Amino acid sequence: MIRRLNDIDRIFGTMDFFKNQMNRFLEDFESGRGNLSQGGVWPPTNFYDDGDHILVYSELPGVSEDEINIKLHNNLLTIKGERRENTPQGYAILRQERNVAPFSRSFTLPVEIDPEKTSASLKNGILTVKLVKIQAAKPKKIVVQAA
Asked: Which of 25, 55, 80, 90 has its CA at 20 to 30 Å from residue 137's CA atom?
């Protein structure tokens, strides 16, 4: 009988631990200290390669183009910026779930990029960076001939 009570105590102790962890997570998220995006990084960013170009898509809702700074140096792409407060004039904040903070993400690119041909645009909260590979970085097909 005592063995069973110890098992029950252990089960409830584990449940209390998980309940406390969940409460802490929800408190952090509600206060703006938490982040539900993948891995806790912001902005979420995707990369695509078509052989000649690399396209980078970053989700930046609420950020204007003049609040974004993009740098390319030695195959390191850095996207910096800040999402600022946008409280309507005369209103007080009742609840705020969107973080207002500076952000910075850096990515090491797998190939050399021509910085002169790089372009970026922002539309509907999606930042698109088009990176053009230099000639030497593009894959080359080698034809095999019969001897």
From this structure: 80
Which amino acid is located at 58 in the chain?
S
- The pTM of this model reads 0.64
Give the torsion sign (CA, 129, 70, 80, 137): positive
Query: Which residues have a Cβ under 8 Å from the Cβ of 32 and sit 6 or more positions away?
Result: 96, 97, 99
Mean of the pLDDT values across residues 132-139? Answer: 79
SS (H, E, C) the chain: CHHHHHHHHHHHHHHHHHHHHHHHHHHHHHHCCCCCCHHHCCCCEEEEECCCEEEEEEECCCCCHHHEEEEEECCEEEEEEECCCCCCCCCCCCCCCCCCCEEEEEEECCCCECHHHCEEEEECCEEEEEEEECHHHCCCCCCCCCC
Fold classified for 40-85+99-136: Immunoglobulin-like (2.60.40)
Return the number of other C-beta atoms located less than 10 Å from residue 109's C-beta. Answer: 17
- Looking at the DSSP bridge assignments, the partners of residue 1 are none
